[in-house]
Amino acid sequence: MELGMIGLGRMGANMTERLARGGHRVISYDRSAEAIQRAVDIGGIGAHSLSDFVKQLTPPRIIWMMVPSGAPVDQTIEQLLPNLSQGDILIDGGNSNYKDSMRRAEMLQGLGMHFVDVGTSGGVWGLEIGYCMMIGGEKAVVDRLEPIFKTLAPPDGYLHVGPNGAGHFVKMIHNGIEYGMLQAYGEGFELLNASRFELDLGKIAHLWNQGSVVRSWLLELVESALQKDPRLAGIKGYVEDSGLGRLTVEEAIEKGVPAPVLTLSLFARFASRQQDSFAAKLVAALRNEFGGHAVKKE
Predict the structure, then answer these.
(1) 99 catalytic residue (yes or no)
(2) Which of 19, 117, 133, 244 could form a disulfide with 158 if both were Cys (CB 3.0 to 4.6 A apart)?
C-alpha cells in the first residue's frame, strides 16, 4: 500500500523501514532534513515540505503521524487540512489522550475524512520484533488499513479494540500497568542489591526468566541492563514519565476505580527527580524536635 509517515524519530523511522521492507510505498516527512535523508536511505521516499508530502500521495490518502502528543498533533492536522480532501485517513500512532482522539475524529468526520487512533507499543525493538497495536476507529476504515497493520505487527499483534478513542484508551491503561511492573522490578532488585549476600543480579534476572511466575520480556531487559553495568553505577535514578501514567491515574480518579499500585508507581517517579526532598527534611527535623533524633547536616 501507499501511505505517508510524518515524524521520523526513533519510532517513526523504524516503522518506515519496516513498512518499506514489507513492500509498501512510504512517503516520509520530518522537519529535520537529516531525518528525511535517513528515511530515504532505509527505503522511504522523501518529501521536503508538507505540501510536497501531500502531493506525492494518491487520494484518498493514508497519513500516519508519529509526532509528540498534544499540541503538535493538532498543529500537524491543521497544517495538513488545506491540502487534504474527502476520504483521506489520518492515523495518530503516538501517545495521545484518548479524549483528544475522540475530538479529532469528530472534527475530521465533519469534513468527510477519517481518523484512526493507534496505540503503539514496542519501542526500539519494534523494527525487528514488530509493534503491538491497539486500534480505534470505524471498522470499515480499519479493515482497509489491515495490510499496514499486518506488516508492522507480529502475528496476533494488532487488534481493533473499538471506536475512535478506544485505541489510545487501551494504550493509556497499558502504560499505567507498565509503570507498576517497572516499579515492582525496581524495588525487588533494590532489595537484592541491599542484601547481606554477594548476589549476581544479572544471573538472578536470567534465572527468573526460566519458568518462574515473574518471567517477562521486561525481565529479559533487566538482565541485559545488568550485564552492561552490574550495579548500574553509571546511571542516575531520575525517572521521567511520558504522560500516559498520569492520564491513567486521572482516569481512575474520574471513574472511582481504586488503582493504588499504578498511582504509587507514578508518585515514585516524581520522587526520583528530587535531589533533596523538602518533605524528607521536615520529617528529619520533626524527629529531632520531638525525640532528639540526630539529623545529618548539609
Answers:
(1) no
(2) 133
